[in-house]
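STRUCTURE:
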């Protein structure tokens, strides 16, 4: 069990569900879904307000400071609502950015939930190139030439112990030149990695469960044969 695992030179996956790029002094997260609770209220539901913008921003700041990062990059879906942004969601996003602090740069690669723009940070509509890495939202369907960091899929994996007891965890997926991050939002749910790899490039994919700041390599490999 570790706080981070290096999967390529200068690319580390962390137990916080982030990618740490030490040479670039950057942290990458994906699928933050600020405003999730507000969207639930619009549908007549209720979620406890524990992941509001300011709280999530403070969590991101703590991760950045722990890794001495000067830059936070969101690989898509900073926002949750796919409708045009309203005043309530805008306020949540501004609280998120304020909590991160002006001393840490914020970049946002737009995802499918970010309709109408990110509102905060420096906005990128496609792929953001950071040193030797490309950062996007939707994973590629073929093996890219450069290491690509993305999200969108919200991967989760089921782990069983020797007694047969099982638990489901968010996980990072690493394949050939691709790293898929887990959803940073605890509300965002997730999908089984066994199903997700069908939409990913051919080859072997390793799943790294993350929980409470710890990332673990349990030698979980999901393979797709290369024709």
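SEQUENCE:
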């Amino acid at each position: 069990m570790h706080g981070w695992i290096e999967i390529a030179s200068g690319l580390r996956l962390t137990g916080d569900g982030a990618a740490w790029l030490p040479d670039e002094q950057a942290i990458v997260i994906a699928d933050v879904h600020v405003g999730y609770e507000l969207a639930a209220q619009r549908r007549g539901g209720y979620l406890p307000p524990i992941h509001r913008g300011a709280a999530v921003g403070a969590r991101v700041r703590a991760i950045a400071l722990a890794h001495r990062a000067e830059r936070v990059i969101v690989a898509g879906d900073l926002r949750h609502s796919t409708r045009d942004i309203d005043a309530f969601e805008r306020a949540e996003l501004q609280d998120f950015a304020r909590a991160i602090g002006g001393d840490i740069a914020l970049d946002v690669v737009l995802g499918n939930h970010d309709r109408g723009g990110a509102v905060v940070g420096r906005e990128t509509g496609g792929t953001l190139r950071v040193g030797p890495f490309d950062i996007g939202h939707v994973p590629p369907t073929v093996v890219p030439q450069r290491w690509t960091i993305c999200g969108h899929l919200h991967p989760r994996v089921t782990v069983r112990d020797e007694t047969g007891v099982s638990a489901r965890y968010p996980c990072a997926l690493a394949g050939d030149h691709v790293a898929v991050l887990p959803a940073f939002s605890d509300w965002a749910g997730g999908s089984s990695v066994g199903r997700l790899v069908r939409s990913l490039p051919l080859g072997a994919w390793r799943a790294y469960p993350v929980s409470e700041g710890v990332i673990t390599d349990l030698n979980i490999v999901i393979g797709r044969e290369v024709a």
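REMARK: The mean pLDDT is 90.
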